[in-house]
Design a protein that fits this description.
PepSY-ass_TM, globular, single chain, transmembrane, membrane, alpha+beta, 8-stranded antiparallel sheet
Length: about 550
């Protein structure tokens, strides 16, 4: 396809600068986003086996009644039912007494019918990766972080469109080509283009949906003023399914939990319940949301049907897979395409790999820009092609920032996952320790990168990332022989994926070492060599890398 050279040049500049402005932000969002696909297995990998109390769904009614008798003030709680459906448990009632406290309370039923109530100490690794994915880790107000990622996602859409336009003239000739040669810049460019093209539909879906998620408050505020004249909340309240719920707060009995599941099965045989969420339990206004999923439909992470807890009537199915109207189904599909909450394990693994590939896309994009600056600097100084040139301070700082932020994120997440088993049972707030370990490693890596420079820090932080990731399967191995540690049953996949990641980072570290020693001496990735600046104009390159 023929496109004028000046048009391609303009789009290349747009693609370059939108990518540079958002690359580091999107790396963190994509890498953490890949881990969110398996945050539940990660939580279970860290949770000690003793934290699970076996029971069966047949005793769910006894657990609810005994807990209500012991804690009558608790009217809002959740009963997990998915494991109990297999007859294996855990059967546990959970609730929060303070919405600002992330540690929930839990009630379990002993064989003699007594109830044990304790405050849980969740690992919080799922909350951490989700927070990083949504806010790139900006501490403080959640709205600030989501707004930043929303703006970055909007620029990301521009980068995607401009990147496709750049590739159109050579798309047929260069499509799916990966030239492995001594020209490292060409290899990075081919890898960048290959990753971008084969995952383009995924990136477009993620980018567009992330714009909506990140800027939804601003979008709603605009709609409220422009479309609804300041009455959007009133319109939403008028269409809320809760408008038909009884206001009777007097005491009233509730149906057994199994009855709700039976009625839901009759309504939708393919719906798989995972939990019952009670509100105003023990009153005439009591309701139950039966949460679950149906792999046949595109829904948010889970859908639910709203039922009356006293009489079991169906109040609303607006969020239930297969029973939604056209608008609700469209909105749910939008969420599902972003979260990958459809299609079962195949889609989940695909999104995991595409998320990692997306992180690599932004990393290689920064590397390409940094490497191309040598030619730009050479042209600006009027030097002949192939002659060495001193890199600008801005280029060196971006190179250090790239390795510090990207590898700091990788090493921080790996180390805090591994630390979860070591700290479990030894600290009062494991959730806070997860965040502390991550931010300590992340900020330390950033400082180290600027202190040591990109070439040395790039190699050292890659080895650190490999070691931190290898600590995950190593911890499981030590669980076979060390008291206080354990092997998580059925979760060997966590260890195998971490082992593969550690080997990949080690291979990247070896490659970076070779590049530092044998690559062009005027590259920011070259090993530091003390030499007079007067030699910069005459020293030959180690090999042609452009």
């Amino acid at each position: 396809m023929a496109i004028r050279t000046d048009v391609v040049r303009i789009y290349r500049q747009v693609h370059t600068w939108t990518g540079i402005l958002t690359g580091l932000i999107l790396f963190v969002c994509f890498y953490a986003g890949a881990l969110t696909m398996f945050k539940e297995p990660l939580e279970r990998w860290i949770t000690p086996p003793a934290a699970v109390t076996p029971a069966t769904l047949d005793r769910a009614e006894d657990l609810v009644a005994a807990t209500r008798a012991l804690r009558p003030e608790v009217r809002d709680f959740t009963l997990a039912v998915e494991p109990a459906l297999a007859g294996e448990a855990p059967l546990r009632l959970t609730w929060t007494e303070d919405r600002f406290d992330p540690a929930p309370w839990a009630a379990t039923l002993a064989p003699d019918g007594s109830v044990a109530v304790e405050q849980l100490n969740p690992s919080g690794i799922g909350l951490l990766v989700d927070f990083l994915h949504r806010t790139v880790g900006i501490p403080g107000d959640l709205d600030i972080g989501t707004t930043v990622t929303g703006i970055a996602s909007a620029l990301y859409v521009v980068a995607l469109v401009s990147g496709v336009i750049i590739l159109l003239p050579s798309l047929v000739k260069d499509f799916l080509i990966l030239r492995v040669t001594r020209n490292v810049k060409r290899l990075w460019l081919d890898a960048h283009n290959l990753l971008g093209l084969i995952s383009l539909p995924f990136h477009l879906v993620i980018a567009l949906s992330a714009v909506v998620f990140g800027l939804h408050d601003h979008i709603y505020d605009t709609l409220d003023r422009v479309v609804y004249g300041g009455q959007m909340r009133a319109v939403a309240a008028a269409s809320s399914p809760f408008r038909t719920v009884s206001k009777d707060m007097g005491p009233a009995g509730m149906l057994p939990p199994k009855e709700f599941l039976t009625r839901v099965h009759s309504l939708a045989p393919g719906f798989q319940p995972v939990s019952l969420e009670y509100h105003d339990a023990g009153t005439g206004a009591a309701t139950v949301r039966v949460w679950g999923h149906d792999p046949r439909y595109l829904v948010r992470r889970e859908g639910f049907v709203l039922m009356g807890a006293v009489d079991g009537r169906i109040i609303d199915t607006e969020y239930m897979p297969g029973h939604q109207n056209g608008w609700s189904a469209t909105v749910s599909a939008f969420f599902a395409l972003h979260f990958g909450s459809f299609g079962g394990g195949i889609v989940r693994w695909s999104y995991f790999l595409l998320g990692l590939a997306g992180a690599a896309l932004f990393y290689t994009g920064n590397l390409l820009w940094i490497e191309s600056r040598r030619r730009t600097e050479r042209q600006a100084k009027g030097r002949p092609a192939g002659s060495p040139v001193e890199q600008s301070r801005a280029t060196r700082l971006l190179a250090s920032g790239t390795v510090g932020v990207c590898l700091g994120c990788v090493a921080g997440l790996s180390l805090t996952i591994a630390a979860g088993k070591w700290l479990s049972g030894l600290v009062d707030d494991l959730h806070a320790w997860h965040w502390g370990v991550y931010y300590t490693v992340f900020l330390g890596a950033c400082a180290w990168a600027f202190l040591r420079g990109a070439s040395r820090a790039g190699v050292e932080l890659l080895w650190a990332s490999a070691a931190a990731t290898a600590a995950i399967p190593a911890t499981s191995l030590l669980g076979l022989v060390m008291p206080g540690l354990w092997v998580s049953d059925g979760l060997i996949g966590v260890d195998l994926v971490a082992l593969a990641g550690a080997l990949a980072f080690a291979a990247m570290a070896r490659g970076a070492e070779r590049r530092a020693l044998s690559g062009p001496r005027d590259s920011v990735w070259a090993a530091a060599v003390e030499r007079p600046k007067s030699e910069m104009g005459t020293q030959p390159l180690a090999h042609p890398a452009e």
